[in-house]
Amino acid sequence: MLGAELLAAGLVAWSALVTIHVRAVRGQVGPSSRVLAGRIVLAQTAVLPLPVAGVSLLLGAGGGLYWLVPGVVFCLVAAVLNAWVLLIEILR
After folding, report:
1. CA 20 to 30 Å from 57, out of 3, 31, 33, 76?
2. Is the dihedral of CA 37, 40, 42, 45 positive or negative?
3. Which H or E run contains 55?
């Protein structure tokens, strides 16, 4: 059951991120292309371990919950970087 929940939550989060990133790339809203590419890579790296963990739990092989550790770490890194931008760099 946990595998199905992780897969569903991961796919919802991933599809929302893909939608946001496609709109940002098409409209060139926000930072330069290089910075935008870095943010996209970090966000995708943070969210993709969730559905991978779900599939792994459903199949019973491939690491299971160990996939959540890099996902949580990258989510924390992304959150700290976003907080830094909002607190410090937005005034520039």
Report:
1. 76
2. negative
3. helix 49-59
Q: How many domains does the chain have?
A: 1
| Residue 71: exposure state from Cβ atoms within 10 A (0-12, 13-18, ≥19) | buried
- Give the domain extent around 29: 2-91
Name the 3-class secondary structure at 39.
helix
pLDDT by residue, tens only, the chain of 92 residues: 988 998 999 999 999 999 988 888 887 666 677 777 888 888 888 898 999 999 999 998 888 889 989 988 988 988 898 888 888 876 65
Distance CA 20, CA 15 (A): 9
Which one, of 47, 50, 26, lies nearest residue 36 by Cα? 26
For residue 92, the Cα-to-chain-centroid distance in whole angstroms is 26
